[in-house]
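[09:14] KT: can someone run the structure on this one? pasting the chain below
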Amino acid sequence: MNDTERLLAIEEIKQVKAKYFFGLDNKDWELWRAEVWAPDGELHVPEFQAEPFRGFDMVLAYVSSSVGDQVSVHHGHMPIIEFTSDTSAKVIWAMEDRLFRTKEFPLYDGSTFLHGWGHYRETYVKTEKGWRIKTSQLTRLRVEMKKVF
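[09:31] RB: done, structure tokens below
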């Protein structure tokens, strides 16, 4: 990969993550399927489940059912991108999220508001359709939760 190809790949990876956040906040699961995740992608959210969700269908089933009626705002910042080959990369994203739930669909502790800060640790793979998320692990460093009715 030459310097120009590397810069293009960096921008493509940034676009994939932007589509991840946009798709999540807008519950656009077709965008996730078409432009974000590798078919064999894995999502690991240790604060909710020890084992990762394996395969896009399992990732989608977990995420779409867990978000319910929430309104969310996700931000990703300052990617640290390391290419492990011409077709794979490791990326760390600083993140911040805010989750707003109704009292009918609260978070696991009964809260209706979550504000979190942390990181996504991900791997990306270049497929015939472009760069896609292969693995994603969310780790929050700080979480503030409230019951707001």
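[09:33] KT: thanks! Strands lie at 37-44, 53-54, 71-85, 88-100, 113-127, 130-146.
[09:34] RB: yep, looked fine to me
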